[in-house]
């Protein structure tokens, strides 16, 4: 808010002011006075917001976090389980305001000095964030040095401040830090005591419209236009649209915007829902020839206490609300000729979890799970002494619904539908077989369209089936062992042991195991159900081993099919981007020979492509060489390369190059490894290296 020395002097002056309206306001406001002397420290987070998928360097989400001391930062997951702060937006915005003398535009009249308490308050309120929300990914055009235009992805982050202003940050993707900030524009909303913010994104006749929905603690809700330059196919409103103007003192707690299709009007529409006290305010926005049509109303009789959290399933428009008494309401929108109505039903969490208090809910991306934050409720009319916060998961879909959604998915990416695949995984692990209807439907899909997505789905099912057939470990894998792992010298491989010693060791081990099971209080019946039936005779084990070998063979066959399909894609890129007898770092000849080595593999497309490539290569082989001994690395295995001296290098699954460095990337599920792009790599190789795992669609770290 000003130079450090001047700010310190002003704080001392306001704290010791004779006027109690100044001194008390200053001392009690944690924005001015974050240290708080005897007050508890400002630790923790006020709010957090996830960006859409595909915003960071790994193609995953960015996290915007607002701390209790009003600092807004952006974090990314660069390496597995390692979060890094990329930028501090509060500091950058403060520096911009300082350079502009705390004026939003040049036409603004100069304000008072920092020593004036009202000016001190104004400077704080204009940069104290209340909420922040990410927009969807949009496309901007960037002009290169040779005057060519290229499309660059960008994302917007809207930050709502205490004084009603909104800062709209534009970031170039992938977001890497301060250098990825394209612009920052400030909009004056004109709303007093703003409480919540949400993006309004609407698509009409292939034209994307956008705006910002702002709610007030006094009740009003309105949409503000957001003007952006150089954004492809982007439009906004001409002027603000007031959705609710009554100052009825019902604070707006949460706003969700859901895109829907109107079955009667035969066009897309936008449903805005807002939690106001114990009610849900809804507004249906529809663009017709007459202009923007607005229908709004309230849904009453949902909760006896104020709504503490609201979430929405954007795929089917279902809205979920909860109050602190452990009651969750499911609201299903049903269209009428003019607008819509809601059917709602009660979900009593007390029937599932017992007496609980709810603090927040969220629905998973594909609507498979509802996550609920709970603490213990009242017992015999008494509140609990301590609060233990837990995240509970409630399934919202059946296994059959999840499987059908995966088969008919337009996304065609397993990683982006991980909540649905989790329901399928749980069912197969429990029943130890793939349901017949799913197997038949998947085979039909593979025969009809042959998309690699369905092959990856088949691979996922086979792997889970193989996992369910294996013997369950006697110990719970994730639970740490508190026993000292000591080995008797007589038990070591170098020493002989008598039969008596072995029998004694076995009896000790058995007694120790029984004590462990009793002490841990595990549900032994559940563990026994999930494990295979223990059979003493060899004849009982053989069918199970044969079954495992059969599944293993199917897994290898599917993996080989996916590998060949990706090899064809890599060879296609090589053919399109190379000249005659040009040496690329990709082992092109090795990949061609590997594809043609199997006599049973007869793919006309692959044969034609390989023929064209071999013509281009003009009898050149361009083999890879071992960096340790300079010997040739033959392409005999898709996973690794071994030279004649026995040096083993892992192969990159995206380009099939040997990773001859100490640092490489790994798929999230540890399926495959990939090398890092190097500065000398051409653009098309860098593009290949940005792809997800060819087996499970997971990003690569």
TrEMBL record:
<feature type="domain" description="Transcription factor IIIC putative zinc-finger">
    <location>
        <begin position="618"/>
        <end position="668"/>
    </location>
</feature>
<feature type="domain" description="Transcription factor IIIC 90kDa subunit N-terminal">
    <location>
        <begin position="6"/>
        <end position="397"/>
    </location>
</feature>
<dbReference type="InterPro" id="IPR045803">
    <property type="entry name" value="DUF5921"/>
</dbReference>
<dbReference type="GO" id="GO:0006384">
    <property type="term" value="P:transcription initiation at RNA polymerase III promoter"/>
</dbReference>
<dbReference type="Pfam" id="PF12660">
    <property type="entry name" value="zf-TFIIIC"/>
</dbReference>
<dbReference type="InterPro" id="IPR024764">
    <property type="entry name" value="TFIIIC_Znf"/>
</dbReference>
<protein>
    <submittedName>
        <fullName>TF3C4 factor</fullName>
    </submittedName>
</protein>
<dbReference type="Pfam" id="PF19336">
    <property type="entry name" value="DUF5921"/>
</dbReference>
<feature type="region of interest" description="Disordered">
    <location>
        <begin position="488"/>
        <end position="541"/>
    </location>
</feature>
<dbReference type="GO" id="GO:0000127">
    <property type="term" value="C:transcription factor TFIIIC complex"/>
</dbReference>
<dbReference type="GO" id="GO:0004402">
    <property type="term" value="F:histone acetyltransferase activity"/>
</dbReference>
<dbReference type="Pfam" id="PF12657">
    <property type="entry name" value="TFIIIC_delta"/>
</dbReference>
<feature type="compositionally biased region" description="Polar residues">
    <location>
        <begin position="507"/>
        <end position="516"/>
    </location>
</feature>
<dbReference type="InterPro" id="IPR024761">
    <property type="entry name" value="TFIIIC_delta_N"/>
</dbReference>
<feature type="domain" description="DUF5921">
    <location>
        <begin position="398"/>
        <end position="475"/>
    </location>
</feature>
<dbReference type="InterPro" id="IPR036322">
    <property type="entry name" value="WD40_repeat_dom_sf"/>
</dbReference>
<dbReference type="InterPro" id="IPR044230">
    <property type="entry name" value="GTF3C4"/>
</dbReference>
